[in-house]
Specification:
Helix content is 50%, strand content 24%. It has helices at 3-25, 104-110, 115-132, 137-141, 145-160, 179-229, 232-247; strands at 26-29, 33-39, 44-45, 55-58, 64-69, 73-82, 88-99, 165-176, 253-256, 266-269. α3 (115-132) crosses α5 (145-160). The protein is elongated and about 145 Å long. Its main location: membrane.
Length: 271
Amino acid sequence: MEKLPKIGLPVLILIVLGIVFISKSTITIGSGEAGVLYKTFGGGVVTDAPPLGEGFHLVAPWNKVIVYEVRQQEVFEKMQVLSSNGLEIKLDASAWFQPDYNKLGLLHQQKGENYVARVLLPTIRSAARSVVGRYTPEQLYSSKRDAIQKEIFEETKKIVGDQFIQLNEVLVRDVTLPPTIKEAIERKLRQEQEALEYEFRLEKARKEAERQKIDAEGKAVANQILSASLTDKILKEKGIQATLELSKSPNAKVVVVGSGKDGMPLILGNQ
């Protein structure tokens, strides 16, 4: 019985060491993540092989695995930038991004885990200052927000693409102008809208007057044509036709042929 502890102690030590070894030699990488392998005795960060994907992995206990989130992420940034005429503009923007999966080792080696603060945010701020500086406050407030959003995205992507970062989108969420400038722009826009409305009413009245003029000219031409076609013979013929029609009426009347003006029939009724 006294020998059992002596025999069991080495076994127990081996079991403990085995558990420690296994715990240090295994790693589980979650969904949306990838691991960068660091070989302590083998050249440091592994950059010439794909990162460790999701799931269970065995690694030597003296090596390390640095886990990165590789799904799309979003970062927010509030900036103060200057317009083309030197006025201070507050810009609220966000970016959708993710690390370049196949170059994750290079990202870790050259930029580190804090790559968002070191690379992405400074690039967004620089691009925003450059782009906004091309526009006036009025353009930023009204018609150019989509344009500056696209330009900030393109300039940022051009830089971070070489920094092992995949930029998916830049969103300009809000542009805040100084209150006095905003009021002046809104007042000008209202005046322009009123001027456009007045111009529309004038154009409508002009077209209506033109329509009436054309209508009147048409009627005048028609009357001239009609007057030119009504000769004395035609008028007498029309008068005779009208007299014949009236004579067929059941009302009592007296028709005196040739007694009217210009020899037209004269109809005398009961009245």
